[in-house]
Design goal:
Order of helices and strands: HHEHEEHHEHEHHEEEEEHEHEHEE
Low-confidence stretches: 1-50
Strand order of the largest sheet: 6-5-4-3-2-1-14
CATH class: Alpha Beta
Number of domains: 1
CATH superfamily: Ribonuclease Z/Hydroxyacylglutathione hydrolase-like
Strand content: 15-25%
Radius of gyration: 19 Å
Oligomer: single chain
Number of helices: 11
Largest sheet: 7 strands, mixed
Shape: globular
Length: 344
């Protein structure tokens, strides 16, 4: 890693880029998080220029249905609309894996916001490849809920008409995509090539990247759910946007997260007060406070950087400058934002 990337005013810099500072002391200075200045999407992407290092780029941070959500006209959702109008929206949770020197690009979860969020990949090579209808060297899917695979719809005849591309997922997810329209049509056309990967074993993608699938408990109505561990030349990153609860996992959650360098984790809700009339049985996700309690020792001991993502439209952690963001920073965690980059 050649140095920490530049950051937007008010955005949390990766605490791991400041090795000489105590983590709590560093993040306490970030307790008041200001709103981002108005800018275009391309300007947002340019704030994190692609370097020679392999890296993960955050393309989205919101829960499946986006921010704002359909039919939501609360003050918070209206703030989400303001962010879109100002050119600094929150998109649905996703990341890209970028190898600038090799000109390789991977997408992790294909969301309803795919058309806009891939604009954050501000790389001339990527745009040339998109013009040639082969933007990605592979697409990864965590599970079969709408925010994680419905973006595949625009990769076919009505959209980019993408060339043959591997679709990395579990065997059950591969069967779901191959058996159900309209995604089966993309498979039949040869645009998507379902490529099942076994759990808990390393699979080499190319000279720079390997991936491992960790099965996690979640609402598995159509297929199972996984987190992806990506291993680059220098660091490892876990992308795990959905889980029913850390205590329900068959892994020791703290030990698993401590085994990677960066973990992007489910942060859907702050408290159940956000969703009157609904229960945890209806919306099974750990609360942010539970997540911070679970991984506080990991953060305090600087074993991994824990980044919170997949934020529901009701979650007060979306309020820039609010007390929830201050508490997240005080405790040494990072709230994900579009354009953040993590070297691998």
């Amino acid at each position: 890693m050649t140095g920490s990337p530049p950051r937007l005013p008010g955005q949390q810099e990766s605490p791991f880029s400041t090795q000489l500072m105590d983590r709590r002391s560093f993040v306490s200075g970030l307790a008041t998080v200001a709103a981002f200045p108005a800018s275009s999407l391309s300007a947002l992407a340019r704030t994190f220029p692609a370097a020679g290092e392999v890296h993960a780029l955050v393309l989205g941070t919101a829960q499946d249905a986006g921010f704002p959500q359909i039919g939501c006209y609360t003050d918070r959702c209206n703030y989400g609309r303001e962010l879109w109008a100002e050119g600094r929206p929150r998109f649905v949770s996703s990341i890209a894996l970028i190898e600038p020197d090799a000109q390789r690009f991977y997408l992790v979860d294909a969301t309803p916001d795919i058309t806009h969020q891939i604009d954050l990949i501000d790389d001339d090579g990527f745009r040339r490849r998109a013009a040639e209808r082969r933007p990605f060297d592979g697409i990864f899917l965590t599970h079969a809920h709408i925010g994680h695979y419905s973006g595949l719809d625009v990769l076919g005849n009505e959209g980019i008409g993408m060339a043959e591309t591997p679709l990395f997922c579990t065997p059950r997810m591969a069967e779901f995509i191959s058996s159900n329209q309209p995604w089966r049509f993309l498979v039949d056309q040869g645009r998507l090539v379902p490529t099942p990967i076994p759990f808990d074993t390393w699979h080499r993608l190319d000279d720079n990247l390997e991936v491992q699938l960790w099965k996690v408990p979640h609402r598995d109505e159509f297929a199972d759910t996984v987190g992806f561990v990506f291993r680059g030349p220098s660091r490892t990153l876990l992308f795990l946007p959905d889980i029913n609860g850390w205590h329900l996992w068959d892994k020791d959650a703290a030990e698993a997260v401590a085994s990677v360098d960066v973990a992007l984790l489910d942060a859907s809700f702050w408290s159940m007060d956000e969703m009157p009339g609904r229960s945890m049985d209806d919306l099974p996700h750990p609360l942010i406070l539970q997540t911070m309690d679970t991984f506080q020792s990991v953060v305090d001991d600087r074993l991994a950087e824990v980044v919170l993502t997949h934020i529901n439209n009701s979650n007060p952690a979306l309020d820039d400058g609010g007390p929830q963001q201050a508490e997240i920073a005080r405790r040494g965690f990072t709230l994900a934002r579009e354009g953040m980059r993590f070297e691998l």
